[in-house]
């Protein structure tokens, strides 16, 4: 079961979102994993009889039963069962690039590579300004925890970047 803002998240809640950034916590030890997952996946089908072009079909992904891509985490889920893990959705995203940005941001914010309390081994992202131009959320001051008076778009349009 996935939780989003304290409530159960189901297929009916997907709407037009592309995917999500998540946090999986092993309840016994408190170790965590931050990752991302798409709600839909594209399957390639063989061509129809007499045709040469392959077909494609978009289907719902395995997001409901997904427990991350980390090998250690998957082995723990297989050995101990899924009941020992809490799965939370941190961000719902409208594009692949947005998922990549928010995943990397969460991973850097939590220092997942430096903190042994996280399963994460890699931070992989490739995001450009045009990928995040539609984000208009206020940035958070990490020292005070309060929103800054400017948004991501303001920063991208300034000469600071």
Verbal overview:
With 161 residues, the chain is an alpha+beta fold. It has two domains: 2-122, GIY-YIG endonuclease (3-Layer(aba) Sandwich); 128-161, no CATH class. It is 19% helix and 31% strand. It is built from three helices and nine strands, in the order E-E-E-E-E-E-H-E-H-E-E-H. The longest helix is centred in the middle third of the chain and has 14 residues, at 96-109. 18% of the residues are buried.
In short:
This protein has helices at residues 71-80, 96-109, 152-157, and strands spanning 2-4, 7-9, 19-26, 32-38, 40-45, 55-60, 85-93, 138-140, 147-151.
Number of helices: 3
Through-space gap between termini = 40 Å
Low-confidence stretches are none
- Strands ordered across the widest β-sheet: 2-1-7-3-4
DSSP E strands, number: 9
